[in-house]
Specification:
Blueprint lengths: L23 E3 L20 H22 L2 H6 L15 H8 L6 E5 L4 H8 L3 E6 L2 H16 L2 H8 L4 H11 L5 H10 L10 H17 L4 H7 L4 H10 L1 H19 L7 H5 L7 H10 L8 H8 L13 H12 L3 E5 L2 H5 L9 E3 L9 H12 L8 E6 L7 H4 L4 E2 L12 E6 L5 E2 L16 H17 L10 H10 L5 H5 L6 H7 L2 E2 L4 E6 L12 H7 E8 L2 H13 L6 E5 L20 E5 L8 H11 L7 E8 L12 H17 L8 H8 L3 E10 L11 E9 L1
Parallel strand pairs: 2-3, 2-5, 3-4, 5-6, 11-12, 11-14, 12-13, 14-15
Antiparallel strand pairs: 1-16, 6-8, 7-8, 9-10, 15-17, 16-17
Helix pairs in contact: 1-12, 4-16, 5-8, 12-14
């Protein structure tokens, strides 16, 4: 993978703000480790405020804990009943120089409130806007119908000044221009709405925040300053008078409102988690917002604070200078609205090719396999020469592993008026040598879930092995003999049991790169039964790999692999090698030549290999040099990603838990991986591509939640 290049679009590689996402970090090879995010507002609070805050949080903690279980269910209960976003909360001005749209461009995007889609229309692009919330489609379609049929002054009064009486008076004209689902929504909702600025769940949240909570908190001066058109210096002077109080308010927003009220603003838990490791989100956001011109330019916040837009501070689609061009392009049919997901829309493509996929921030919500599936669908329908994929994130870094293989570059979002995103990315498709394709869970008819009896019997064999192995002839023999005995008694149910134990295994296979030209070599160390291969469709394996090697010390597990490969016709492609990968002569036992493997994987094998440094050294020796080879490790880990940031007593409790996990797994010869191992063996010798940690359960022992992780590096 090439390191990002700087240009007028992108800042230098050293520029990204620091930190890791909640469970993962993506750092393109060659990037410098980002510096810690800082903020002038993130100073220590005074002691009285800190004491009051601690008391309040102690009272609120049980409530927030219960609330967290229902967070997403509450949020998604609004789906197709109410629109969430009354304003598209992404600044199109950042996109305009990056996209440089013209009539030859076809953009696929999320409809949201329609603001950004209409901005692309103004730039003459053809736009396909999708949304799985019918109500967002209805809101966008109302704006389109109004633009097509009303004079500018009436369009302005309805959507900028919230003239709902005029909307009702003109509704009979607008109604025939909308689809049935939209008219059904507006037939009822037009009688309920009081103001577009404070409609939808995010509008409700904005109303209570900007018109009630902020004034009650003594920050009502912001509205007065905007109304009287105060200068930036005057606003800053007012802020400095209240700086201590503002510090407390931003702390309160971070520690109470962020977790409890974000759902009303359309922020699901998955996205929220990406920034919870930052202790001063709102302090940073607040200061960045105050650096913008809310009187003349930042309509996002001015609109919510005032409750309306002004002619000199509004979205481009509301500007009179753009109205006739927007209308002409809409009349020409250059905007398509589609209810459903991006994948749903792409399924009905008939030869059309998109040049831009503007994905807003919605991939923050999605687990990696969803991201992979969506990007794979997009790539099948993109112009690979002109195409570019663009997204924003609440994370400081690339937040999902599949996106790393797009070779994304960070967009210079200086001047972003929303100030809510910690990174913005673009991936010109012609710049990446990799492709993203769908993965699968199993070949053939799928994987059969084991019965409770099978799980119990296999679990018992694993747990009791340390006791009864001493009663067998294997006592005193080498590691290979002990491992063969361990696996021989459970080989038939091996994969089934571990489906519920080895949680990082499918993620590792989802995350490994696929070169567009194919001809790849893959070495799977400790691959045993060849189950790892099943997470990739057979046709994808044949299209991208010219040779695969599975190395394992267990005869029993490799016998399962042989049967699996024969069943699906891959014996000609896959070589099985029964040998200890840490042996000095392992390279003479049928492995590919040193420095010729594109990918080497170790899925829950490194933790069971006694000589871990030697295993890593041999794995790296197999990899192609100069950034062309990748080593991926999925396994149990001693620690999470953010333990150094924990405070007393949580850090001490986590340390005790880690020791307990270590001792438990040691019984079965599984040694949780310490960070020191990868720091010593990989640090300075490789570039970090991906590092992810998360908790995963153990069958029959729900209280046991060790950390699992995926660690991917490239050679240097």
């Amino acid at each position: 993978m090439e390191s990002p290049n700087s240009s007028t679009w992108y800042p230098s590689p050293a520029s990204p703000a620091s930190g890791q996402s909640y469970v993962c970090r993506g750092v393109p090879p060659g990037w410098k480790e980002p510096q810690q995010v800082t903020s002038r507002l993130a100073n220590l609070m005074s002691l009285p405020l800190a004491l009051a805050a601690a008391i309040f949080m102690s009272m609120m903690s049980p409530v927030l804990w219960v609330f967290s279980f229902f967070y997403d269910k509450i949020m998604f209960s609004f789906l197709n009943k109410e629109y969430i976003y009354n304003v598209s909360w992404e600044d199109p001005r950042i996109e305009q120089p990056v996209f440089a749209l013209d009539r030859d461009d076809h953009v696929i995007t999320i409809a949201s409130a329609g603001d950004n889609a209409l901005d692309y229309i103004i730039d003459n692009a053809k736009v396909t806007a999708v949304d799985f919330n019918l109500c967002q489609i209805a809101l966008t379609e109302l704006k389109v119908a109004a633009c097509r049929s009303l004079p500018y002054d009436e369009f302005w009064k309805i959507f900028a000044e919230n003239d709902i009486a005029l909307l009702n008076a003109r509704y009979a004209t607008l109604r025939p221009l909308m689809r049935n689902t939209s008219t059904k929504f507006w037939d009822d909702y037009k009688n309920k709405i009081k103001s577009f600025q404070y409609s939808g769940t995010s509008g409700w949240a904005a109303y209570y925040l900007f018109r009630w909570i902020i004034p009650i908190c003594g920050l009502g001066f912001l509205r007065k300053c905007i109304i009287k058109e105060a200068s930036q210096d005057e606003i800053r002077e007012e802020i400095n008078k209240r700086r201590s109080w503002i510090r407390f308010c931003t702390w309160f927003l971070d520690n109470v409102c962020l977790k409890s009220c974000s759902l009303l603003a359309g922020v699901p838990q998955e996205q929220l988690q990406l920034g919870l490791h930052r202790k001063d989100n709102f302090a940073i956001i607040f200061e960045n917002v105050l650096a913008t011109d809310m009187v003349n330019d930042n309509y996002f916040y001015a609109g919510y604070i005032l409750g309306y837009y002004t002619k000199k501070n509004c979205p481009r689609y509301l500007e009179e200078a753009n109205y006739e061009k927007m209308r002409a392009n809409l009349e020409e049919g250059r905007l398509e609205l589609f209810h459903g997901s991006i994948e749903d829309r792409l399924k009905i493509c008939e030869g059309e090719k998109f040049t831009v996929a503007s994905l807003l921030d919605h991939m923050d919500w999605m687990p990696a396999d969803w991201v992979q599936r969506e990007i794979a669908a997009i790539l099948r329908n993109m112009d690979l020469e002109k195409g570019r994929i663009y997204w924003r994130s609440w994370s400081e870094n690339v937040h999902s592993a599949p996106l790393m293989w797009l070779n994304p570059r960070r967009v210079d979002d200086t001047g972003d008026r929303v100030c809510m995103y910690f990174s913005t990315w673009i991936a010109p498709l012609k710049d990446t040598p990799y492709v993203i394709k769908d993965r699968c869970h199993a070949w053939g008819d799928g994987y059969q879930k084991p019965s409770a009896t099978q799980m119990a019997v296999t679990g018992a064999k694993i747990v009791t092995f340390p006791a009864w192995k001493h009663l067998t002839s294997v006592r005193g023999k080498d590691h290979a003999a002990q491992m063969e005995l361990f696996y021989k008694c459970q080989k038939d149910a091996y994969d089934a049991f571990r489906e519920t134990l080895l949680h990082a295994r499918p993620r590792l296979i989802e995350y490994i790169p696929l070169r567009a030209e194919g001809d790849m070599v893959w070495v799977d160390i400790g691959g045993g039964t060849a189950r790892n291969l099943e997470y990739m469709p057979v046709e994808t394996i044949r299209a991208h790999f010219k040779r695969i090697y599975i190395v394992d010390i267990s005869t029993s597990l490799l016998s399962i692999a042989k049967e699996r490969l024969a069943k699906f016709g891959l014996e000609d492609l896959v070589t099985l090698i029964e040998y200890d990968v840490t042996a000095d002569d392992v390279f003479t036992k049928g492995l590919p030549e040193v420095g010729t493997a594109d990918v080497v994987t170790m899925s829950y094998s490194l933790s069971m290999i006694p000589d871990k440094p030697k295993a890593i050294q041999h794995a790296l020796k197999l990899c192609k040099p100069a950034g062309e080879g990748f080593l991926g490790i999925a396994d149990f880990w001693m620690r999470s990603a953010f333990e150094e940031e924990m405070a007393f007593p949580w850090k001490n409790l986590r340390e005790a838990e880690a020791v307990a996990h270590r001792e438990w797994f040691n019984q079965d010869g599984v040694h949780l991986l310490p960070d020191e191992l990868v720091d010593t063996e990989l640090g300075g010798k490789t570039n970090l591509v991906w590092n992810e940690r998360f908790r995963g359960g153990v069958p029959f022992i729900p209280v046991l939640q060790p950390y699992h992780g995926v660690h991917i590096v490239s050679t240097i």
